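User: For a reading group we're discussing how well predicted structures match intuition. Take Acetate kinase. Before you show the prediction, I'll give you the sequence so everyone sees exactly what went in.
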Amino acid sequence: MNVLVINCGSSSLKFQLINAESEEVLAKGICERIGIDGRLTYQPEGGEKEKSEKAMPTHTEAIQFVIEALTNPETGVVNSLDEIRAVGHRMVHGGEKFASSVVITDEVKKAVEECNDLAPLHNPANLIGVAACENLMPNTPMVAVFDTAFHQTMPPKAYMYGLPYEYYEKYKVRRYGFHGTSHSFVSKRAAELLGKAYDETKTIVCHLGNGSSVTAVLNGKSVDTSMGLTPLEGLVMGTRCGDIDPAIMEFLAHKLDLDVDGVMKILNKDSGVYGLSGGLSSDFRDLTDASLAGDKKAQIAMEVFSYRVAKYIGAYVAVMNGVDDIVFTAGIGENDDIVREQVCSYLGYLGIEFNTELNKGLRGKETELSMPGSKVKVFVIPTNEELAIARETLELVRK
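Assistant: Thanks. Here is the predicted 3D structure of Acetate kinase, as structure tokens, for the group to look at:
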């Protein structure tokens, strides 16, 4: 069954066409600058990457161009829309309403829309993508796969904040967590590498990218995660500050004469390793080069990032009363050997014997980075959220 996986942003649309049974990627690409001018990048499996400028006033035109590319007689990978049997949509926030993926209905769309104020930049864009696909493929089943769903197994002691309870009752202010599709996919693969049943494992997944989060997966269920009501909480990230004293917001507002929106812009867009490095970059490749060249701010930025990851790992070892394995994934986790080594340098107390030689230069390859006698295993496992979405879609459509 061919499944079209859609990840829709406010002005972009990433896509992959996957044979969900063989798990082969048939084609992939991205539509960018939607609503501005429009640019399509398309690559069939084994073929050359194609780039073209196309007017995309809305996401409907973007989806249309995607379909035209996929069915192109020369470089397409299917003959007609009939060969696309389902569409899987990444949905960022399902609130408490969705603890698993669902087939999209009018009721589901309404429930997602009710979560818009929890993810104002993402949910409306996700729904626009659904509407665009429904307009062009009205008879094709659509599935919503939520970033937050995997974390709905957290107990109240993990997701409640120390705020008046009425704010939870009225406004659902609580920890939700994100990157759930990735944490689920990677933790399942880790269980396979351990040779243990998924429901008998204690795994800590470090999804480290421009947006980063750490999750404690106990017996196949998320029991705590570092992101909160929004993706701003938790680790220091590319441009996000992560955990801070909330009084800093008031302090900066007075010092800089800013309103709430102005302070939030600083915390979301101007902070993280970008801010710590003095505005040098949010890209760890740039920070690594600068750090090796002696740039003190870049060095501090990387050290703060790794230190915060190690702190969360320590906390989650306590939460689960032990750990079997620690997994690095996503752009930084899979590709940055310096960050992996820095993080693991704090974890000797766990009995981790880290293979520094094997770690050097390792990029994007599934690998065990712990020595044979290590009490706790360390893995690099490349994430594949698109494949996870395709698997969920296949399962639901078959039902």
